[in-house]
Design a protein that fits this description.
Number of strands: 14
Helix content: 25-40%
CATH superfamily of the largest domain: Vaccinia Virus protein VP39
Low-confidence stretches: 64-71, 243-254
Number of helices: 17
CATH architecture of the largest domain: 3-Layer(aba) Sandwich
Distance between the termini: 56 Å
Shape: elongated
Structural class: alpha/beta
Number of domains: 3
Radius of gyration: 26 Å
Strand content: 15-25%
CATH topology of the largest domain: Rossmann fold
Largest sheet: 7 strands, antiparallel
Length: 465
Amino acid sequence: MLLSITTTHQPAVDLGYLLHKRPGRFQSFDLSFGQAHVFYSEATDDSCTACLLLDINSVDMVRGKGRDSNFGIGQYVNDRAFCASSLLSVAIAQVLGTALGGRCNERPELVSQPIPLTARLDVLPVRGGEQLLHRLFEPLGYEVEATRHPLDDRFPQWGESSYYSATIRGTTTLSQLLTHLYVLMPVFDNAKHYFVGEDELEKLLAKGGGWLAAHPEKEQITRRYLINRPGLYRQALARLVEEEPVAASEGTASGDRHEEKLEKGISLNEQRLGAALAALRASDAKSVIDMGCGEGRMLRELLEDRQFERIVGVDVSSRSLEIAERRLKLDRRPEKQTERIKLLHGSLLYRDARFSGFDAAAVIEVIEHLEPFRLSALERVLFEFARPETVVLTTPNREYNVMWETLPAGQFRHADHRFEWTREEFQDWADQVSRRFGYTVVFLGVGPVDDAVGAPTQMGVFQRD
């Protein structure tokens, strides 16, 4: 497998200082599974390319394994010698460890200087298709190009393989680029070729510090990096959630401010909460779970209404739950009120027994923050497993965006929105969910209605058959 890193920073040969590898020298390093070679395919002031080539020995990889090893013939017949994997991460750490750690004694000013960098991987196994490359690299600021390889050029009827030549480009520090590659290589392959234990969890958190907690695919990255070991995954995700930026949790991020500014003139948030509360009251629900409760605005409305005897708020962000607790002033309320409410740390994408047994669920402005491919998980968690009698769900109406002159065409209302549906798209989705899980749904608009584009918020009230 081959990793090449190119820069056009002037002078480009500064790359040699950052890598601690001289451009005019070919170097080889012994690893437990073979050898790594470092060389430069070009080294001028205008452009410099450093290459890391791995020569993997399949026999070395299995030497010392006992008879109980369960790899069988796969120990010797595999793709490890030809494609990037967790072994490349090991090589980066052992051969380019100084650069990975962001150290350069001779030119320390270079370490923190973002420079134009291009990394090319030949070849990369991507268990999840080309879109996975874009979903993992693009939020980190890279441009992505990918070329998919056929299973065999001589037999085109066999179709395409899961192997790609991948190129990413961005302006960043070399240390950051190597860190992203170190973490993501085994994620694309969805496998590791050595034992994964607590030390791997610590490596992930150490290398992911500063960027993984805010990555929209942090759950998938964490799960795959830890080879789907539930115990380690839950620990890692809980610790990552604690590292979420305070600004985002407290609603002061630019996206939150932008959305609030758009909606301020018509007090849309108050209308939305009022409409959802009215639907919950009409359902005669005594117990309500607010899924994705955030900072507790809906919880405050529910707590003030004596109809609701049991109230639970759930959010994946522990910081948001802390803010909700402060805003609700639970430490100052009468005991009879505080006994009615509980806050839970949890994810709407995973089955949780604590979500069951409620008369109604509120899902207010939540689904648009999820990647579309994750909606199927939410659907099962909410409508199949939790299965309340009533679900009140709201989401923006994309058609209404043209009514705000300050919102550029084609832009979402909030920087964290992954999609915004038209009325037809929302109704198609809601009808499909209702048929699949045994509900009926009624649609309502929230906010001022325009004859052409409808209301700014659309609401679906689902009733179990």
